[in-house]
Design a protein that fits this description.
The chain is of the alpha/beta class. Helices cover 23% and strands 39% of the residues. It has a single domain, classed as D-tyrosyl-tRNA(Tyr) deacylase (D-tyrosyl-trna(Tyr) Deacylase, Chain: A, 3-Layer(bba) Sandwich), CATH 3.50.80. It is built from three helices and eight strands. The strands form two sheets. Strands 1, 2, 3, 6, 7 and 8 form a six-stranded mixed β-sheet that branches. It has a two-stranded antiparallel ribbon with strand order 4-5. Helix 1 packs across helix 3.
């Protein structure tokens, strides 16, 4: 699984101008299930992100995790993280998991974060979404399990 994680002071997702998910301080997590991924991969990625130390401590050093800060996660499915541009200018997405499998793993990932005590909001799987965020830092991290 792949994820692009952004530390945010606020983030929300809208579908047809209706807010479907919103958080205050925490992480916006764009996540993509790849062919061959399993629930184990989704759980490992969730655990890694929950413990990722990218929040400032009292001295301003990135020493705290989402779990430490009590922040929330806004999880948004994004199959375009599977983009392959090695053969031209039009990305290919053949390495992404099929939609049914991708949705199952996306939901498992979100549930795994929630099971760790993290407040989780979600986008709408497969929908055209408008994602609004205030990236804090900015801090953006690419992860792959």
């Amino acid at each position: 699984m792949r994820a692009l994680v952004q530390r945010v002071s606020h983030a929300r997702v809208e579908v047809a101008k209706q807010v479907v998910g919103e958080i205050g301080p925490g992480l916006l997590i764009l996540v993509c299930a790849m062919k061959g991924d399993s629930e184990t991969h989704a759980g490992q990625l969730a655990a890694k992100i929950a413990k990722l130390r990218i929040f400032g401590d009292a001295e301003g050093k990135m020493n705290l995790s989402l779990s430490d800060t009590g922040g929330a996660a806004l999880v948004v499915s994004q199959f375009t993280l599977a983009a392959d541009t090695s053969r031209g200018n039009r990305p290919g997405f053949s390495t992404a998991a099929p939609p049914e499998e991708g949705e199952r793993l996306y939901r498992h990932f979100s549930a795994a974060l929630g099971a760790m005590g993290i407040s989780v909001a979600n986008g709408a799987f497969g929908a055209d979404m408008d994602v609004h965020l205030t990236n804090q830092g900015p801090v953006t991290v690419w992860l792959e399990i």
